[in-house]
TrEMBL record:
Keywords: Secreted, Signal. Its main location: secreted. Pfam families: KWL1. This is Uncharacterized protein. One of its GO terms (cellular component) is extracellular region. Signal peptide: none annotated. It is found in: Secreted. The keyword DNA-binding does not apply. The lineage of its organism: Eukaryota, Viridiplantae, Streptophyta, Embryophyta, Tracheophyta. It comes from Perilla frutescens var. hirtella (Perilla citriodora). Belongs to the kiwellin family.
Length: 71
């Protein structure tokens, strides 16, 4: 999905975003995965601008139900 646009939906709004990194490790903690912890399913990390476009207050950024799809 890297370098592809997706549409992210939350709070009755949607915005498009460019995927710049994708975590596909369910193992983690090894050199191939830069010793990062395993990724959860359907986790999305985004810039503050994306969350602002979706109307998400900063105090709700830890956990939020969203959907995403190819545009």
């Amino acid at each position: 999905m890297c370098h592809h646009n997706i549409t992210i939906r939350a709070n009755g709004r949607s915005t498009k975003s460019l995927v710049v990194d994708e975590c596909n490790s369910t193992v983690g903690y090894d050199a191939d995965n830069l010793y990062q912890p395993p990724c959860g399913n359907n986790m999305v990390g985004a810039s503050k601008a994306i969350w602002k476009a979706l109307g998400v207050p900063e105090d709700e950024l830890k956990e939020l139900n969203i959907t995403w799809s190819d545009p």
